[in-house]
Specification:
The chain is an all-alpha fold. The chain has a single domain, classed as Orthogonal Bundle (ABC transporter involved in vitamin B12 uptake, BtuC), CATH 1.10.3470. The protein has 16 helices and 4 strands. It is globular and about 65 Å long. The relative contact order is 0.18.
């Protein structure tokens, strides 16, 4: 029998916090040391992809001054929406440590269902969209059921879905092949509508900055009340100022062309909601815990099967949303919808943006960052007249670099005693 001789702290005494958690108390040097510590520990966050976007934009702007023109940036902001929505659903699946290969086929099926129900059956577009999204969510839930309850590997069941739902899309479209959508209807308006008044873009930027500041202040107050380290007000104000500079610069650029695209506003709204769900709700914590360790999550009382089914249903729903937006861009549903490199772009966007392929770590904003990388490469090469084959090779190289970086940082974190 051993006796614990560790002295108890005096009543009312506070346990000193780790000074590394309070870099603001040491001024600029403290922040620099904290930054270096995070880099050495493999905690890179979104830094690599942000630096990558800056480099890509600088190189293409140097080669062609039209790259950062208001028109090109506005076109880019609409281009990333469809695949970005699909990639946001892929993020949730990757956080589980799984993969969903069916999202491309589901997006094409959604477009086909909307076109057939609206154009051939006369159903109102809004209702047709809701039916299509419900179908995609149900099929995604079916993938989750076979994975969670039957035990079929996610790779296999979603690969089967890739083939089956592509075939179903062709069956739904029939021999016509392509069905045009009403150019003045709800679906096409998603990508053709712009809020031309300058107040729209600046207003959205202002709301975003104000919301960020309020969230940061609320989080700091809660952490202070709980007696844990929190961000000081000067740091919060600096972070808010950086966001404000980016947001209002983007608004200014968009207003120089046609204004704020409705499609971009939809994407940002969806990402805000999904980010809140993943980071601020019990459900999101269960998803992250399950990606970290399924067995540990099960022992903690998490209904593992139900969470898995819900994540694949969410992935199917967002794939349907992305398919509708992509159909809106071309104003039609065709037999090629959801095929080609759409699946690879969606998965690549999530990974390039910073979501780990090993599960347990990711952010829905990585979908937007990753699509900005992919879309910027495609846009820049189109301006320079570079062949599509070169674009594929460069995008593949960027994806490989992202996976290698993910593997290295994960190994570094383990060496530093973190998962």
């Amino acid at each position: 029998m051993t006796t614990d001789t560790t002295p108890e702290p005096a009543e009312g005494a506070l346990t000193p916090a780790d000074p590394r958690l309070l870099p603001h108390r040491r001024g600029p040097r403290g922040y620099l040391e904290e930054f270096v510590r995070r880099l050495r520990g493999g905690e890179l966050g979104s830094l690599p992809v942000v630096v990558g976007i800056a480099v890509i934009w600088a190189v293409f702007q140097w080669r062609d001054s039209a790259f950062l023109s208001p028109k090109n940036l506005s076109d880019l902001s609409v281009y990333v929406v469809g695949t970005g929505l699909i990639a946001a659903g892929v993020v949730f699946v990757l956080v589980l440590g799984e993969i969903d290969l069916s999202v491309g086929s589901l997006s094409g099926l959604a477009a086909a269902v909307v076109a057939v129900l609206n154009v051939r059956q006369g159903m109102p577009e809004e209702l047709a969209v809701l039916v299509a999204l419900a179908v995609c969510a149900a099929l995604g839930a079916a993938h989750g059921f076979f994975f969670a309850y039957v035990g079929v590997p996610a790779f296999v069941v979603t690969l089967a879905g890739l083939l089956a739902w592509n075939g179903l899309m062709l069956q739904v479209l029939g021999t016509t092949g392509t069905i045009g959508l009403d150019e003045h209807g709800f679906v096409v308006t998603l990508t053709s509508r712009y809020f031309v008044h300058v107040a729209a873009a600046y207003g959205v930027a202002g709301v975003a900055v104000a919301g960020f500041l309020a969230a940061q202040l609320l989080d700091a107050r809660r952490r202070q009340a709980a007696g844990v380290p929190f961000r000081p007000l000067p740091e919060i104000l600096v972070r808010t100022a950086v966001l404000a500079a980016l947001a209002f610069t983007a608004a200014w650029k968009l207003n120089e062309y046609k204004g704020l695209p409705l499609a971009l506003l939809v994407l940002l709204a969806v990402l805000v909601v999904l980010d809140f769900v993943l980071r601020r709700t019990a459900y999101g914590r269960r998803v992250l815990a399950l990606g970290g360790s399924a067995e540990a999550a099960r022992r903690a009382g998490v209904n593992v099967a139900a969470v898995r089914v819900s994540v694949f249903a969410l992935s199917g729903l967002l794939a349907g949303c992305g398919g509708v937006v992509i159909a809106s861009r071309v104003a039609a549903a065709s037999q090629t919808a959801g095929t080609g490199n759409l699946l690879m772009e969606a998965i690549a966007a999530a990974v390039i943006g910073g979501t780990s392929l090993f599960g347990g770590r990711g952010s829905v904003w990585s979908a937007l960052l990753g699509m900005l990388v992919i879309g910027s490469i495609a846009s820049g090469m189109s301006l320079l007249g570079i062949a599509q084959s070169v674009k594929y090779m460069i995008t593949g190289g960027v994806l490989l670099a992202a996976v290698v970086l993910d593997s290295v940082t994960r190994r570094t974190q383990r060496s530093a005693g973190r998962r």
